[in-house]
Design a protein that fits this description.
The protein is an alpha+beta fold. The chain is 68% helix and 10% strand. It is built from 13 helices and eleven strands. A seven-stranded antiparallel β-sheet has the order 6-5-4-3-9-8-7, covered by helices on one side. The protein starts with a helix and ends with a helix. It comes from Ovis aries. This is Switching B cell complex subunit SWAP70.
């Protein structure tokens, strides 16, 4: 509410100063009544003429100053204003009151409508102090915006030359000087009237109407689903679309909040460069003229939604606030610097005064020193005569003192010799005491060492006795084990002897068995030959016929020559008989 009040006060200030015809700083009550009624009408505030009469009812029928009108204006109009009025209508009413009196009569390159828009832009960019002015930094900002809108490059050097010729006695330009500056075409040379007018309108839309972006696009309908070209205008919290750019026939609004979003869409239905705006209740499909326009619109809408989420003002208002804060900071720094310079200047003046006082004191001291020097010289002459007599007397006294000093010196030398002898004796005594102390320490150390050795010897002796007892026990145990091992050894030797005897017996039996085996082998070979010859004979006489005879019921052994003539039992019996024969032999 404070910023809205400051914005309204600027337009009202222009109207009030325009009603001040004789430049006395005061306006008649009748004119103030008309102004108040008009303000209540355009601001949609209930008008209370009785309160106006009560406020200005006094014996003085003369005009009222701005300070006298402000209490009524604040109490009965500005404090009741809501943000539901037409700001352009309010500005146009204030403009109408002041334009005829103040607008220059010189021909301008812009129309009166363009001058009105510059007047409104001035109120937006001017400083919050009266009389209203626009500082050079804001003039540069406005001219840059106009130059960019006209599509030409900014001439910084030209503006710097303008600033050099700027009146140093003024802090800025009034609104009428600004209109004349723009209207004389100094910074729009080469541009036609229509281009300048379009540039002013574009800057007006951005700074005053908060138009962040505008342009033609094609929108898809919600009911008939047809595609229609509309003129879209993006503001901080709304997107309005019209039939054309003259803004006369409004077709609808897209309300934006922090929950809205915008996203690109693929081409469909023969439409290209599509994007979608999602709101709480509806979604809007829109087609831009080309990819660049599509991206610009998506970025602009996304930035607007982001500002709504942050609760930030539009970029141009935020930038204006930052520039004002920067100027305030620089102004405060400049004032602080001026204050420091004044303090330094005052300190310098004080220092100069102190130096002047010191110089005067030095001159007085110099005059006093000259007088004192004269007195000193006179006193010196008197003292010199006195000192000459005193000097003679001092010489005599000095001779006497020298004789006394020589005597005292010899006495002192004898005394010093005695002192040196005493010091030598003292040093020797200290050395003897030190040796005695060291001997006592060594004796104590040896005594402690002997005690420790005796203690260790006693512990070792106890340990050796313990080991001796253990060794005696081990020897006794070893003797018993030794006797037992000796018995075992004797037994084992006897067993070994018996085993050797058995081994010898077995060796003998083995040799006998081998001999018997050789004999049997020879007999077997002879039997084999005999059998073979017998078989040959049988075969010769009887041919290959072999008589089949009943055999033994016991199983017969199979040899290399066929079934054996004896069974396994008969063989075992024969082996047993052979062994008996060997044992008997």
């Amino acid at each position: 509410m404070g910023s809205l009040k400051d914005e309204l006060l600027k337009g009202i200030w222009h109207a009030f100063t325009a009603l001040d015809l004789d430049h006395s700083g005061k306006v008649s009550k009748s004119q103030l009544k008309v102004l108040s009624h008009n303000l209540c009408t355009v601001l949609k505030v209930p008008h209370d003429p009785v309160a106006l009469e009560e406020h200005f009812r006094d014996d003085d029928e003369g005009p009222v100053s701005n300070q006298g009108y402000m209490p009524y204006l604040n109490k009965f109009i500005l404090e009741k204003v809501q943000d539901n009025f037409d700001k352009i209508e309010f500005n146009r009413m204030c403009w109408t009151l002041c334009v005829k009196k103040n607008l220059t009569k010189n021909p301008l390159f812009i129309t009166e409508e363009d001058a009105f828009k510059i007047w409104v832009i001035f109120n937006f960019l001017s400083e919050d102090k009266y009389p209203l002015i626009i500082v050079p930094e804001e003039i540069e900002y406005l001219l840059k915006k106009l130059t960019e809108a006209m599509g030409v490059s900014w001439q910084q050097e030209q503006f710097e030359n303008y600033k050099i010729n700027f009146d140093d006695s003024k802090d800025g330009l009034s609104v009428w000087e600004l209109i004349e500056l723009v209207g004389n075409g100094q910074f729009s040379k080469g541009m036609d009237r229509q281009t300048v007018s379009m540039a002013i309108n574009e800057v007006f839309n951005e700074l005053i109407l908060d138009v962040l972006k505008q342009g033609y696009m094609i929108k898809k309908g919600h009911r008939r689903k047809n595609w229609t070209e509309r003129w879209f205008v993006l503001k901080p919290n709304i997107i309005s679309y019209y039939v054309s750019e003259d803004l006369k026939d409004k077709k609808g609004d897209i309300l934006l909040d922090e929950n809205c979003c915008v996203e690109p869409l693929p081409d469909k239905d023969g439409k290209k460069c599509l994007f979608l705006i999602k709101c709480f209740e509806k979604t809007f499909e829109i087609s831009a003229s080309d990819k660049k326009k599509k991206q610009e619109w998506i970025q602009a809408i996304h930035s607007t939604i982001h500002l709504l989420k942050l609760g930030s003002p539009p970029p141009h208002k935020e930038a204006r606030q930052r520039r004002k804060e920067l100027r305030k900071k620089l102004l405060a720094e400049q004032e602080e610097l001026e204050r420091q310079m004044k303090e330094l200047q005052v300190a310098n003046e004080n220092k100069q005064q102190e130096l002047e006082a010191v110089r005067k004191k030095l001159e007085e001291a110099a005059s006093r020193a000259a007088e004192e020097e004269k007195k000193r010289l006179q006193t010196q002459v008197e003292l010199q005569a006195r000192f000459s007599t005193e000097l003679e007397r001092e010489k005599l006294i000095r001779q006497q003192m020298e004789e006394q000093v020589a005597q005292k010196s010899s006495e002192l030398e004898q005394y010093l010799q005695r002192v040196r002898e005493l010091e030598d004796m003292y040093l020797k005594l200290q050395e003897a005491l030190e040796d005695e102390r060291q001997a006592r320490q060594d004796e104590e150390t040896v005594r402690k060492l002997q005690a420790r050795l005796l203690e260790e010897e006693s512990s070792k002796r106890a340990e050796l006795e313990k080991w001796h007892l253990e060794q005696q026990q081990a020897i006794q145990t070893t003797e018993a084990e030794k006797q037992e091992l000796e018995n075992q050894r004797v037994i084992k030797e006897q067993a070994l002897q018996e085993a050797l005897e058995q081994l010898q017996q077995l060796e003998l039996e083995r040799k006998q068995a081998l001999e018997q085996y050789e004999g049997v082998k020879k007999k077997l070979e002879m039997a084999t030959k005999t059998t073979k010859s017998w078989k040959d004979k049988v075969a010769h006489h009887e041919g290959l016929i072999r008589l089949i005879e009943p055999g033994s019921k016991n199983a017969h052994l199979i040899t290399n020559w066929g079934p054996a003539a004896f069974t396994q039992a008969e063989l075992e019996e024969r082996q047993k008989s052979w062994k008996e024969k060997k044992t008997t032999e």
